Amino acid sequence: MGELTLTVEAPDAEADLRALHQWLSADDGLRGRVRRRHTPPPPGHMGAGADALTVILGSSGIAGLIAPLCAWLTGRRRDVAVTLEADDGRKVTLDVKRAADEQAVIRMAQEAFRSLAERPDALPGGQRPGARPAGRGE
């Protein structure tokens, strides 16, 4: 897997995406590997298109993203969900409630990332504790 696309679902998704971009870009292991991506709206539609972050994975792969993403998630003062999409189309969503336990978030992220990195047949099939495949009822 060469890169991941991250999208944010929150009451103020734009501000949270901007904050996540700044946070990840400041991490030594991710510096220079995080890009903001803007998708224009479909023809004939007004308004902003979807914004996302693209993270180019380095030699440490997904493991290099776990700590900085979990730190950002547990530091939120409101509920937020981050969907990670692998370049082969598999998705997983980390849905974190405010004041979440950092260790629980790390365990949830490790399992979700492991499913993206090691078990391509695991998504979108079944639910895992703390992580949910994206696209179901969203």
Detailed description of the structure:
With 138 residues, this protein is α+β, with helices and mostly antiparallel strands. Helix content is 31%, strand content 24%. The protein has 3 helices and 6 strands; from the N terminus they run βαββαββαβ. The chain has a 6-stranded antiparallel beta sheet with strand order 2-3-1-4-5-6. Strand 4 (80-86) and strand 5 (91-96) form a beta hairpin. Helix 2 runs antiparallel to helix 3 (102-118). The longest helix is centred in the last third of the chain and has 17 residues, at 102-118. The chain is globular. The two termini are 25 Å apart. Residues 120-138 have low confidence and may be disordered.
Number of extended strands: 6
What's the order of the H and E elements?
EHEEHEEHE
**Overall outline:** globular
Question: Could you give a short account of the major beta sheet?
Answer: 6 strands, antiparallel
Distance between the termini: 25 Å
